[in-house]
Specification:
Order of helices and strands: HHHHHHH
Oligomer: single chain
Strand content: under 5%
Shape: globular
Radius of gyration: 18 Å
Number of strands: 0
Structural class: mainly alpha
Number of helices: 7
Distance between the termini: 31 Å
Largest sheet: none
Length: 216
Amino acid sequence: MKHNIRSYLVFTSLWYKIIMFAVLPLVLLGIQVFSTVVFRGTAIPVFVMILIMVEIMADYGFLGGIQEKGSEKIDYLKTSPRGMKVMKSALVIDLVRRFLLHAGIFGLSQMISLILGFSDRAGELIGFGELLLVIFLSYTLSVLGIFISRFTSYLWVNLLCGYIGAIAGLVILLVCTSMPVPMVLPNAALVVLGGGISLLIVKIAMLKVEGSYYDK
């Protein structure tokens, strides 16, 4: 596991680490505290939009354009026999990091609300099914936007995917929580979709890496 994490970190810049590992979580939790204390409300819909948008936009500085035809971002991996293993480890750990961030942020936001005396339903604390929904929804739309944007190396594509993903996340969240259907249905659909996209992200990128070894 230690080597896998190192393989992931080698692709991340200092600014990426600072923003994604420190600034983003602190800002979101700060928003939750402010929302709870001042408005007696939850900031979870805002979290969904911010997480999706930032994850997609920030990926431009991580592995943006890796799936683009003719990309030169991974040519240096040819110099090492461990190149493909390093890349696969980085891709998998990145997806794990994203899911844990989303789960941790939404889980901690609920804990903050409870600690500050936020009463259930009166202040719209969400139930377990809804909590899973926002986690799966934000993760799924994030990886979908990342998968699409990695086919190009243009920043504006990441920005566009980020904005569309954020709006789609809010709309889907509002629709799912307002419809009289068991949360297990949208949650199951998001698990299947998110899992499938995650597998595609690793598969397509690894095909690109393998092709680079043979100048395909």
